[in-house]
Amino acid sequence: MSDKEPKPFNKIRNIFWPIHRSELSKFVPISALMFCVIFNQNVLRILKDSILISEVSAEITSFSKVYVVTPMAAIFVIAYAKLINHLPIHKIFYYLAALFTGFYIIFAFIIYPNIDFFHMDRQTLAHLMENHPHLKWYIATIGNWSYVIFYSFSELWPNIFYILMFWQIANEITNTNEAKRFYTLFSLFGNSSLILVGFMMMNLSSDNSVINKLFTVSDSKITLIQVSVAMVTVASILSCLLVRYISKNFSSTYSNMPVGRIDKSTRPKMGIIESFKYIARSKYLWLMLICSASFGLSMNLVEAVWKAKIKELYPTVNSYAEFNSLYILWTGVAIMVMTIIGNNVMRKSSWFAAAVISPIIILITGTIFFILVVFDDHIMNFFDGAILMSPLALAVFVGAIQNILSKGSKYSILDTSSQMLYIPLDQELRTKGKAAVDVISPKIGKSASGLVQSMIFTILPMATYNSIAAPLMFIFIVVCVLWIYAIRKVYFEYQKIV
User: Fold this and answer.
1) Within 13 Å of residue 474, how many CA atoms lie on the same side as its CB?
2) Burial class for 29, CB neighbours closer than 10 Å (0-12, 13-18, 19+)
3) Top-confidence range, 115-129, 174-188, 203-217, 263-277
4) Considering 30, 252, 335, 482, which has the largest number of Cβ atoms within 10 A of its Cβ?
5) Continuous segment of H or E residues that includes residue 283
6) What angle do CA 201, 137, 298 make, to 5 degrees?
7) 3-class SS of residue 244
8) Shortest CA distance to 193 belongs to which of 154, 226, 232, 153?
9) 146: closest CA among 76, 43, 48, 44?
10) Given its phi and psi angles, is residue 260 left (phi above 0), alpha (psi -120 to 50 degrees) or beta?
11) Which fold has domain 24-249+275-497?
12) Cα angle at 132 between 128 and 137, to 5 degrees?
């Protein structure tokens, strides 16, 4: 930035573009990497719900999160803690990208087009579920195994590739001063991919899509999955190329390392058991784990009920995906607006002021949604025709607003502010500690919610999300209040370290 620029211009530029020209060679490739990773994340988010919920039901998601996603996350953390001692981060990224993308290709082009061959016979499955009502969702989980595994891999993608891998790469080459200016702008550029994903997936999901016009399509839902996975594959390859460029040009110099910290090359590497013991002694990481788990728990309580409502309104794979695409598009808009707000809040106010925005938004909007679901008849009678939507359409609309605002604040403000907490930590906590918090904690939150729901559905086979919305609302409010308290505590710990 030139000294000749007038001061008012400097101030405006600092608000909207606080990046120096000499920093663009670092800023641009990391932003592009974030764009590709989040592009895939949101394509997969649309597909995983559209496939599992439309092909089976919303209730099965609770069982998938508890009995499949969480064990897979735990296995990954153990494997990652071992790999990080022997391989550089960029090679781990390549191997994991190949593993995930390979499965998506097999599912889209081999399993899904021949689903009757790979899955249990539908009549047999229905017969088993009918004869064993208390076990019907466990039977459904096994009987629809490929949908569940696709859902589980897609659930893990954001935690492994975005929260863990991307931010670890960014943290390794970015110092604290740069982070305050870079991180929210990473979010701005990276999350702009949501708008692109929304437009593309809406077109692919609609009956008048470009694919249907150009080719004779026998089954539109199979074509939707195959084209979407092809896009994911291309973005994964680009991600690997960007990681290769970053690893070659920006070595991990730890320029932000506090005086007195033991250098990575001189400190002996810890084994898996020693690493987790070391992490378990960190109050700082435990508070971060609680904060991260609280988001997963609170959002899953709302989303479970909301997604059941969406299936009622949009019962097919393509119609569900088209609605999800519209929701993703508006989430991208919300993220970009909130990123500009969050960037200035973080620079001009405290970390706590930025981090507490998300739980407050989620608490307020989630409570409104639950009230609408639990007291829908009373609300419709009270307004007596003033509301032009049906109760179902209104619930889906309000749930969408809740999710757009909540995810918007989470991905623009909460994620970037949370990642700053790792920068002053030592190498062991920044790698293995980060893996434990970033991968396990969101799944702990979702699994805790899923466990409660799955137990209810097991004990009461006839229960639905509509019938259990009231107790879920109570749990939701308690979790949000505890989340705000945990953010306050971790802020005090952060101040001590910095």
Assistant:
1) 4
2) middle
3) 115-129
4) 335
5) helix 283-313
6) 60
7) helix
8) 232
9) 48
10) left
11) Growth Hormone; Chain: A; (1.20.1250)
12) 80
The predicted-structure confidence for 361-406, as pLDDT tens digits, reads as follows: 999 999 999 998 888 777 767 666 666 677 888 889 999 999 998 8
Backbone angles phi, psi at 98, to 5 degrees: -65, -40
pLDDT at 2 over 50: no
Please provide the DSSP assignment of 122-150 as one string.
HHHHHHHHHH-GGGHHHHHHHHTHHHHHH
Q: Does residue 462 surpass a pLDDT of 70?
A: yes
Nearest in space to 387 (alpha carbons), one of 411, 395, 405: 395
Complete DSSP assignment for 192-213: THHHHHHHHHHHHHSTT-HHHH
pLDDT digits (tens, 9 = 90+) for 295-323: 888 988 899 899 999 998 898 999 999 99
Q: Token digits for 227?
A: 């084209």
Please provide the DSSP assignment of 433-455 as one string. Answer: IHHIIIIIHHHHHHHHHHHHHHH
Q: Pick left, alpha or beta for residue 230 (phi over 0 → left; psi -120 to 50 → alpha; otherwise beta).
A: alpha
pTM of the model: 0.78
